[in-house]
């Protein structure tokens, strides 16, 4: 089993380097591979900042990717929660941070928009820290 780094996942998603994409495809065909949520978070940033992809395209690409044979999220339940919140307009990193909180634990922030968007995205417990 192999855990994939961001650059490997990007090659699999974008295929912009033929040699690296081919090597990544061969690896995935040969053995089961996992992807950590921190890797997906970095991939989201790369796809948004470097490839100018929009959130709906990134979200769909991640879901398709995680459904490929021999590919799985290191934490499938967390991945589902994060992608669901991301699909509802929450920033990927914010969704990941909040979704990792234990049940009943609050996630405290100074970001008012994050608090408002998290509720709409189905993530409870994001709380505004007042000054």
Radius of gyration, Cα only, in angstroms?
A: 16 Å
Structural class: mainly alpha
Helical content band: 55-70%
Q: Could you describe the largest sheet, including whether it forms a barrel?
A: 3 strands, parallel
Measured by DSSP, the beta-strand proportion falls in: 5-15%
**Overall geometry:** elongated
Distance between the first and last residues' Cα: 48 Å
**Strand order in the sheet with the most strands:** 1-2-3
Order of helices and strands: EHHEHHEHHEHE
- The counted number of beta strands is 5
- If you average the pLDDT, what whole number results? 95
Low-confidence stretches: none
**Count of helical regions:** 7
Report on this model:
- By secondary structure, the protein is mostly helical.
- It has helices at residues 6-14, 18-30, 37-49, 55-66, 76-87, 92-99, 112-120, and strands at 2-3, 33-35, 71-73, 107-109, 126-128.
- It has a domain at 2-74.
- The protein has a three-stranded parallel beta sheet with strand order 1-2-3.
- Helix 5 (76-87) crosses helix 6 (92-99).
């Amino acid at each position: 089993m192999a855990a994939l780094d961001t650059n490997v996942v990007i090659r699999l998603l974008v295929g912009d380097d033929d040699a690296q994409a081919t090597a990544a495809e061969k690896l995935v065909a040969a053995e089961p591979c996992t992807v950590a949520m921190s890797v997906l978070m970095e991939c989201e940033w790369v796809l948004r900042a470097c490839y100018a992809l929009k959130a709906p395209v990134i979200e769909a690409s991640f879901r398709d990717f995680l459904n490929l044979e021999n590919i799985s999220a290191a934490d499938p339940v967390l991945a589902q929660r994060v992608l669901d919140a991301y699909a509802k307009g929450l920033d990927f990193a914010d969704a990941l941070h909040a979704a990792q909180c234990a049940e009943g634990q609050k996630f405290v922030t100074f970001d008012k928009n994050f608090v408002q968007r998290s509720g709409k995205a189905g993530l409870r417990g994001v709380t505004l820290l007042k000054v």
